[in-house]
Amino acid sequence: MDDDLIARLRTGLPPEALLTDPQVTASYASDMADFCPAGAPAVVVLPRTVEQVRHVMRTATALRVPVVPQGARTGLSGAANASDGCIVLSLVKMDRILEVSAVDRIAVVEPGVVNAVLSRAVAEQGLYYPPDPSSWEQCTIGGNIGTASGGLCCVKYGVTAEYVLGLDVVLADGRLLRTGRRTAKGVAGYDLTRLFVGSEGTLGVVVGAVLALRPAPPRQLALAAEFPSVAAACEAVCAVMEAGLAPSLLELMDGTTVRAVNALGKMGLPESTQALLLAAFDTPDAPAALAAVGELCTAAGASAVVPAEDEAESELLLRARRMSLTALDALRPATMIDDVCVPRSRLAEMLDGTAAIARTYGLLIGVCAHAGDGNTHPVVCFDPADEDEARRARESFDQIMALGLALGGTITGEHGVGVLKKEWLARELGPVGLEMQRAVKQAFDPLGLLNPGKLF
Amino acid sequence: MDDDLIARLRTGLPPEALLTDPQVTASYASDMADFCPAGAPAVVVLPRTVEQVRHVMRTATALRVPVVPQGARTGLSGAANASDGCIVLSLVKMDRILEVSAVDRIAVVEPGVVNAVLSRAVAEQGLYYPPDPSSWEQCTIGGNIGTASGGLCCVKYGVTAEYVLGLDVVLADGRLLRTGRRTAKGVAGYDLTRLFVGSEGTLGVVVGAVLALRPAPPRQLALAAEFPSVAAACEAVCAVMEAGLAPSLLELMDGTTVRAVNALGKMGLPESTQALLLAAFDTPDAPAALAAVGELCTAAGASAVVPAEDEAESELLLRARRMSLTALDALRPATMIDDVCVPRSRLAEMLDGTAAIARTYGLLIGVCAHAGDGNTHPVVCFDPADEDEARRARESFDQIMALGLALGGTITGEHGVGVLKKEWLARELGPVGLEMQRAVKQAFDPLGLLNPGKLF
Question: d(Cα A289, Cα A281) in Å, to the nearest integer?
Fold first, then answer.
């Protein structure tokens, strides 16, 4: 079977595009999510052209072999994990930036372009591609599209979905579908573009994208505020948003996270704080806006408000925030990273509730949050070798999602469902929601070959 | 048949929610698009609750009767036109604003809320709902969602789709589907919310929406620039966007439109101009930004640049622009309004080409455009009683769409497909695109009862 598959794949692919050594293919088995099952791929394919991708999909359909599309495998939900006997279809070699237009404010790219490479390329033309997931130096645009990635910029600039204007997609049977547009607006037919964004490779293989760009804003200026409680910091977040301010970043780190970052990076953050709030603005009136935020923080009970002296100091603060997950990961042998997003008016309840869950289960749970979005990342730190602790970790992880749903939130703000949260997707969507999701899957992939076992 | 239908409908609807008098029901037959076929409804239903809508859809499915959802019928593509024997399902009585939150920056509304009513209600809380189609004093949010409406704000704020976070939808068989979220971010499953936006009532009936709001910006300040040619005005548009400026409005009126507006509204616009460009900014640095635009206009060949003295004068300029379609409509017995959107780098070619088409066909075609978006509204003015002129009008209308597609554009930037452009949708999407659109329709409405004959 595998021999036939590989022989057929060879007919439309150069030798270097096919990896079959089991030791090599095993290294493509999973993304960065721990504790998600992953199978052994039959083969890894690294195409360089759309035609090669079509050949792979035609072959997969002919032989009924599942296909798992992959980018840089920096995902956090197991959405890119291989299934046994599958073709891993890695798009990382399709990494050309085909066009950047300052007049049309678009970029046309292949899926394997690394996020940071694109960001730098457009910056050279005075342009800005906002989505900035924390893995931006590694992750690809195709992966960002597959998972609908977010980042620190979202409170002002929104998520990846808002920057995808059109797509070229190879369907399960090898047909090439072009969706969307190159224009600023367009309403010709159903919005299939958005359907693919966040679909985790289950509806088709993205082989090209037209992305929207913005003019580059001024570099941002930041401020840090220390709070005696997480709830007070959340109150400040609500006050900032209610006041109509438009920060380019509004991030929260709890005391556990602050101390973890200090331990890892010697950042010199205030050790005794219960919550550190970082706000930034990228507008000409940033100093005034930061002053307004400072006043709102003080009114909410901040014990200290420290504006960065300049852009370099601002960048240092953001580096501390970007280091949070790595720092929490270093505290204990393993972590599970949650991604619950609630209406920001419920943020304090979410975080207080998370702290209560940590106490109930006797676990260390550090939280960093895209607070302006209500998007929290509780990081459950534990030792998987300790069976009881591992069970408590899993239960607390689930309790956090249950709390998020009870507060009118979602189980995933930006990391996606993958295999990690598929049971929870059904809970969030309810029976009718799930039926219609499955109906869409059926319409695009009737044989169920694309990334099976993910989402549902 | 009709008797059975009406008897069944009565079992779940109050008497005043059912209109059966043929003279009355006939008045619900069509939207504002001319020259689109419309049938005679069997009945018009005006529900006030979700449960009533579900009853209507269950009845329609049981009896296999088509249903045409309607808002205020201000659409311009015949998407809300009745088909013979259908149930017209008018959502205008479901017009409650259920919630407005400044902290969460959302509004929760029923579909029949009028756009301007919502805009004013949220403005009272210092909030802003950007989408502003020119019919905003009449059109409903449900209609805006169905057609994915645009407006003057789009160059900075985008279209309706970007403000719809979640939906309650009654499916063809009466099931209630909840999509999306109340949160700022969320990636749980396929984005069905966006699939419904712009689907013209062919996939389900929107009965509730969670809308994103923004903080209210300062009132905008505008500038008018006169150009000796449309091409020069388009050059200025490209220069403004290439310079990284972010106008809240960037509109173009050709000479024909300017003179039509003067004739209708005694606006005192410059009669001899070939193109009038209006730019506005709603930021604290608006005067400086307008000065920069003025310089770019002059460099592109503007013969005069006139900044508005204040907000009131700015509002007057915008009123002239908003009057354009009505003014062009008054020139001749009838009009056909096109809605082609091209990459803005191709705008000059689009408008010069449109002028050439007008000359070739010996027709009066006035153009106003959301120039910053590359979205043009060529208005073909003609006398339908003159058979030859009517034929030329239809042909020129089609030639304009063909030109838009040849320039990498779309046949519709914001007005939708309806019945007016359904042949052209197939051309724009191509065979695979159309197949997948139909597959989606099949997944949601297997019996084909929802707004049949629209889109495809």
Answer: 7
In angstroms, the CA B311 to CA B298 distance is: 23
Which whole-number Å values give the CA distances from B384 to B260, B360, B395, in the listed order? 20, 19, 13
Interchain pair B374, A184: CB under 8 A: yes
User: Of A304, A253, A245, A309, which Cα lies nearest the Cα of A278?
Assistant: A253
What torsion do the CA atoms of A103, A106, A108, A110 make, to the nearest 10 degrees? 150
User: What DSSP string runs through A282-332?
Assistant: -STTHHHHHHHHHHHHHHTT-SEEEE-SSHHHHHHHHHHHHTHHHHHHTTS
Picking from B188, B198, B437, the nearest residue to A412 by CB comes out as B188
Which residues in chain B have Cβ-Cβ distances shorter than 8 Å to A430? 178
Residues 6+ positions from B7 with CB-CB distance below 8 Å? none
Statement: residue B1 has pLDDT above 70: no
Residue of A101, A103, A429 with shortest CB distance to B189: A429
User: For B32-67, how does the pLDDT look when each residue is reduced to its tens digit (9 = 90+)?
Assistant: 988 899 999 999 999 999 999 999 999 999 999 999
For B216-254, the pLDDT digits (tens) are 999 999 999 999 999 999 999 999 999 999 999 999 999
Write out chain B residues lying below 8 Å of A413, CB-based: 183-187
DSSP letters spanning A349-379? HHHHHHHHHHHHHT-EEEEEEEGGGTEEEEE
Mutating which of B76, B185, B245 best tests the A interface, going by the most A Cβ atoms within 10 A?
B185
ipTM of this predicted complex?
A: 0.96
Check whether B20 has a pLDDT greater than 60. Answer: yes
Question: Strand, coil or helix: what is A419?
Answer: coil
Say if residues A347 and A318 touch (Cβ distance below 8 Å).
Answer: no
Position of tokens 């949010």?
B141
- Give the residue from chain A lying closest to B375, CA to CA: A185
* Mean pLDDT to the nearest integer, A219-235: 96
- The conformation of residue B371, written as its DSSP 8-state character, comes to G
DSSP letter (8 states) at residue B278:
E
Question: What CA–CA distance (Å, rounded) separates B109 from B141?
Answer: 8
Sketch out chain A's domains with CATH numbers.
Answer: 2-90 (3.30.43.10), 97-215 (3.30.465.10), 223-406 (3.40.462.40)
Contact A159 B192 (CB under 8 A): no
Distance to chain B for A16, nearest Cα, Å? 31
| Minimum CA–CA partner of A404 in chain B | B183
Nearest Cα neighbor of A411 from A342, A353, A333 is A342
Residue from A171, A183, A250 whose CB has the most chain B CBs within 10 Å, to mutate: A183
Tell me: the pLDDT tens digits for B168-202? Answer: 999 999 999 999 999 999 999 999 999 999 999 99
Q: Can you tell me the distance from the alpha carbon of B205 to that of B196, in angstroms, rounded to the nearest whole number?
A: 9
How many CA atoms does the CB half-sphere of B154 hold within 13 Å?
A: 27
- Cβ distance A410 to B183 less than 8 Å, yes or no, reads yes
Partner-chain contact B189 A437, CB within 8 Å:
yes
Both tokens of B349, joined, read 């070619």
Query: What whole-number distance in Å separates Cα of residue B103 and Cα of residue A238?
Result: 6
B191 or A3, which is more confident?
Answer: B191
Q: Do B344 and A103 count as a contact with CB atoms less than 8 A apart?
A: yes
Q: What is the DSSP letter of A216?
A: P
